[in-house]
Specification:
Elements: E1 3-8, E2 18-23, H1 32-41, H2 43-50, E3 60-64, E4 72-77, H3 88-105, E5 110-113, H4 125-139, E6 148-153, H5 156-166
Parallel strand pairs: 1-6, 2-4, 2-5, 5-6
Antiparallel strand pairs: 3-4
Helix pairs in contact: 3-4, 4-5
The chain binds adenosine-5'-diphosphate.
Residues 10-12, 22, 32-34, 36, 78, 114-121, 152, 154-155, 158 line the site of adenosine-5'-diphosphate (ADP).
Amino acid sequence: MVQLSAIQADITSLDVDAIVNAANNSLLGGGGVDGAIHRAAGPELLAECRTLGGCETGEAKLTEGYSLPAKYVIHTVGPVWHGGNHNEEALLASCYRQSLMLAKQAGVKTVAFPCISTGVYHFPKHLAAEIAVSTVKEVLSNDDQIEQITFVCFGSDDYQTYIRLLE
Ligand code: ADP
């Protein structure tokens, strides 16, 4: 049975099998959590990302973790929030679903997710957290490989939201 938990932390510090990156379509780095992951992983991560040909919104691609404690980085591209009538909720759920699919294919047991799309992409934070938790629960309801999912919150508001949703 998979264990779901929330912590307030810098995702780059976590010693898990895979961390998820809230990347952009280019996969060539950016600000926020993406920038932090590239800085911590080192230039080899960007070199591998250059070979991937970008990533569609709602999809995911896997790389090595290089200098990170995590063995893998799963890069997924969340939707930009345009008011809620542009398929944003389904695309965000797809990010979680596709990331977990890659994790399972790679034999990963522990995965840490950031709060995808809730930074410069402006997805409403509470709705994003609800989608994150419900999608992960749904995908892993019959899974006996993945043991631990950590929702990594940067701010204390997000952390409180996840704690309540996971109670
Ligand atoms: P997006 O473009 O998908 O909105 P951002 O990186 O702007 O991505 O923000 C996504 C979330 O990641 C935000 O909640 C932000 O506070 C958080 N974040 C930023 N840096 C880190 C980090 N080092 N570790 C964990 N979360 C982070």
